[in-house]
């Protein structure tokens, strides 16, 4: 079932669904995001139900993973968590330190009591001819597990969510995608040289993302301020996939003071400030 509210898109009165929370810094915003996840997990654990999470990589969620590891150590079991990652470079060996597979184990999975069989990450090693089958199966698997409860997102400098680059339509599903030049340039800090950055990736689609019950998008720092503003306050546009979030009924945008700094004043009044 999709939670996209078509009525709202038509009327373009989109923003009232968005909860925008501004925190002191990345650490406190990340702690809040981790606590939202932990509350959901605790609730589901108490009735022996699974919690299905959609997860992101990159620099944005690193402190959230640190906080989740601490929460797990403090006794909240993650043994009933099922995770689906947003994306993976293609082609990409799982063992490569540049893979999102490696990132997820390094930053999160190897430190918590999640079961290996509950971890789903797009497979950057899949043969090209098997790729579309793999993507279909990824979608089916999410649905078989009851859909994503909480989808964690970062925001690309060009407004991409997952690796859904500007121009992608709202009904896209998990597929092989071509990375934009902006995205490849942003990845140079991890790969060292631009020539090393893959041209393609496998990404969950926009529609897949928007099917989650709850979306939590985080963004930190001045460099994200402009695209945060466009995504939250701009007109719905395929040129800025972040604007698609305006159509979802249950979105929480988690910002620090810098990434929130360009939001309009009349918008600020709708923001619950978590600044001390
Ligand atoms: C990562 C992902 C991307 C990133 C985005 C922001 O799995 O899907 O959309 O969230 O590129 O990247 P950072 O967090 O490195 O600024």
Whole-number average pLDDT? 91
CATH topology: Rossmann fold
Please tell me how large the radius of gyration is.
Answer: 18 Å
CATH architecture level-2 label? 3-Layer(aba) Sandwich
Q: Report strand order across the widest sheet.
A: 5-3-2-6-9-10-1-11
Largest sheet: 8 strands, parallel
Helix content: 25-40%
**Number of structural units classed as domains:** 1
Shape: globular
Q: Class, according to the CATH hierarchy?
A: Alpha Beta
Q: Low-confidence stretches at least 5 residues in length (pLDDT < 50)?
A: 1-14
Distance between the termini: 39 Å
How would you sum up this structure, described in words?
- The chain has one domain: Rossmann fold, CATH 3.40.50.1360.
- It has helices spanning 6-11, 26-46, 62-73, 100-107, 131-144, 181-186, 188-191, 206-210, 225-233, 265-268, and strands spanning 18-23, 51-55, 81-85, 87-90, 119-120, 150-153, 175-178, 200-203, 214-219, 251-256, 272-273.
- Residues 1-14 have low confidence and may be disordered.
- By secondary structure, the chain is of the alpha/beta class.
- It is built from ten helices and eleven strands.
- Helix content is 32%, strand content 17%.
- Bound molecules: fructose -6-phosphate (F6R).
- Fructose -6-phosphate (F6R) binds next to loops.
List the helices and strands and how they pair.
Layout: H1 6-11, E1 18-23, H2 26-46, E2 51-55, H3 62-73, E3 81-85, E4 87-90, H4 100-107, E5 119-120, H5 131-144, E6 150-153, E7 175-178, H6 181-186, H7 188-191, E8 200-203, H8 206-210, E9 214-219, H9 225-233, E10 251-256, H10 265-268, E11 272-273
Parallel strand pairs: 1-10, 1-11, 2-3, 2-6, 3-5, 6-9, 9-10
Antiparallel strand pairs: 4-8, 7-8
